[in-house]
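User: Can you help me understand a structure? I only have the sequence.
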Amino acid sequence: MAKQRLKVLITVKTAPIPSKKYDELVCTAGVLEDGSFVRLYPINFRELPFSQQYKKYQWIEVDAEKHKGRDVRKESWKPDSSTLTLGESIDTKRDPTWSARARFVMPKKASSMEALWEAQKNDRTSLGIFKPRNTHDLLVQPLDEPDWDPSFLEALKQARLWDDRKNTLQPPRKMPFKLSYQFECDDPRCKRNHQMMIEDWEVSALYWRLVDGGAKPNDAVQQVRSKFLNVLCAPSRDTHFFVGTVLEHGTWVIIGIWRPKKEPQRKLPF
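Assistant: Let's start by predicting it. Here is the structure, written out as tokens:
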């Protein structure tokens, strides 16, 4: 399939990881103007010029083609980063319920995680958004290997050996904890014990910001947990989960949080 010019509203960026094939990988997801989900990879985000470094809920345009080979997920596109241009952002300063963003994000909303699993079986759906009925907890687990696999780092070093620009860029830092939401769906098929890892870049970015500011690792991760559970999933928020599948296993992970304030309840006139 020939390249197409895509106009995408960015909704998700996962944390960068070293890649033997792509040097460094950031998975970016968003929606087209009709609400269809799109996955763009590889994008070496930290390598992009400042004029191309997009933010969440910013429109971009980029030439892209469908992935070939083993990635048969219907939303996956391979972008040509040299063609990427930035458009307008949809801010929320005067829109606390995110209604302007919702116009594009919510048309393809799923009713539950169970509905997304069913869609995955039917047509290889691999991206979506849904509203959990209840979010019970956010579990923290130290990783057995808190740093990247040495083979990844060696491959990255060799790939950058003759590239002066890349050679000055330090490998992305790996967050030494795994965070997983426990939640239930508003679906009769739900067994009310979902546990799903979150890989939103904002999680690791907040963690490292706290550590760099002097917090101890255990204190920093508990502060991250508190924000993503008690603030972003508070009763006053209309919390939804952006989710996507991992290519190697087909399993689902949470890749972003939709967290506007709920519409204020109107008082009855009596």
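Now, to help you interpret it: The longest helix spans residues 217-231. The CA atoms of residues 219 and 237 lie 25 Å apart. Let me know which part you'd like to focus on.
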